[in-house]
Amino acid sequence: MSTTVLTLVGSLRTGSVNRQLAETAAAAAGDVAEIVIFDRIGQIPFYNEDIDVEGSVPEAAAALRSAAAAADAVLLVCPEYNGTMPAVLKNAIDWLSRPFGVSAISGTPAAVIGSAFGQYGGVWAHDDARKSLGVAGARVVEDVRLSIGGSVTRFAEIHPKDDAEVVEQLRGVISTLTAEAAPSAA
Ligand SMILES: Cc1cc2nc3c(=O)[nH]c(=O)nc-3n(C[C@H](O)[C@H](O)[C@H](O)COP(=O)(O)O)c2cc1C
Predict the structure, then answer these.
(1) What residue ranges do the domains of the chain occupy?
(2) Which of 2, 75, 136, 138 is most solvent-facing, going by the fewest CB within 10 Å?
(3) Ligand 1 centre from 111 Cα, in Å?
(4) Residue bearing the CA closest to ligand 1, atom 28
């Protein structure tokens, strides 16, 4: 039995360092966890209570909720945009937060990591994402901390999967997060 970790990447660009980190985490997880990267985050409309009603929920938002319901844990891999998390991730959290108290992430262990260009690696974004996930009802795993600075320079010539330090750090992230999650029945 392995733990399923729904992974949301907060950058939509093709060459995203954070996407590469998520893919590296998936490879580094081995048999410990199945990292499921949700590929449709950019297709989810902005949250709107008018459409969050039976029969009107956008298909991509419904797919996100289903993926969360099937997961044992959630991992956000997040750059920093203007001192906080990118809108695409906040929007995903908003969709995942409802119905409040009984949502697909209610009580689910959740962690935030990522890389940004600044020397602090996006800690403001990561702190904000942890705060938002907690308000949304997830069980934030505060022990997981990984904010890698200099994203576009550090990984200009090297993919994170070839950076032994990063691979080891991601293994630690997955190990700590999965320890907090009940294994799936699969
Ligand atoms: C709109 C925008 C705002 C940004 N704001 C910040 C910021 O506040 N702090 C920071 O460290 N980097 C900032 N950056 C740089 C990104 O963190 C950096 O480009 C990062 O690699 C983007 O993630 P990605 O490689 O996964 O696309 C910003 C980039 C963009 C496009």
Answers:
(1) 3-185
(2) 2
(3) 20
(4) 81
